[in-house]
Amino acid sequence: MNGKYILDDKGEPHKEKNLMKWAKWYENSGQARIVAKTCVGNAEVSTVFLSLDHSFGNGPPMLYETMIFNSEDNEFGSYLERYSTRAEAEAGHTRIVNMVSHKE
């Protein structure tokens, strides 16, 4: 993982070079990191701000992630998607909720 990021007052990610500032923000950010959570039957679709770049040096920073938890028949396994922007994360969350909903 390459860089550390924090969200500003408007919810926009910014690279943070100071480890202690990043750690303090992360410790206190709680709900600010949650983009969306939606329950569909026994499954939960969760989209969060990761605060660490998960691109591993390949392309733009991947700062958001959507995962499916507790799928009743584990049909989706350990399904996840990552995104660079909040807008992409919100759109991805909606798309994945619709995908899970159509399996119900």
Explain briefly what this protein structure is.
The chain contains two helices and six strands; from the N terminus they run ββαββββα.
Whole-angstrom Rg: 15 Å
Helix percent reads 25-40%
Strand content: 25-35%
Going by helix content, strand content and strand pairing, the class is alpha+beta
Overall mean confidence score, pLDDT: 90
Strand order of the largest sheet: 3-4-5-6
Q: What would you call the shape? A: elongated
Features:
104 residues, alpha+beta, four-stranded antiparallel beta sheet, two-stranded antiparallel ribbon, 2 helices
Describe the structure.
The protein is of the alpha+beta class and 104 residues long. The protein has one domain. Helices cover 26% and strands 29% of the residues. The protein has 2 helices and 6 strands; from the N terminus they run ββαββββα. It has helices spanning 19-29, 86-101; strands at residues 5-7, 13-15, 34-40, 43-49, 64-69, 80-83. The chain has a 4-stranded antiparallel β-sheet with strand order 3-4-5-6, with helices on one face. A two-stranded antiparallel ribbon has the order 1-2. It is elongated.
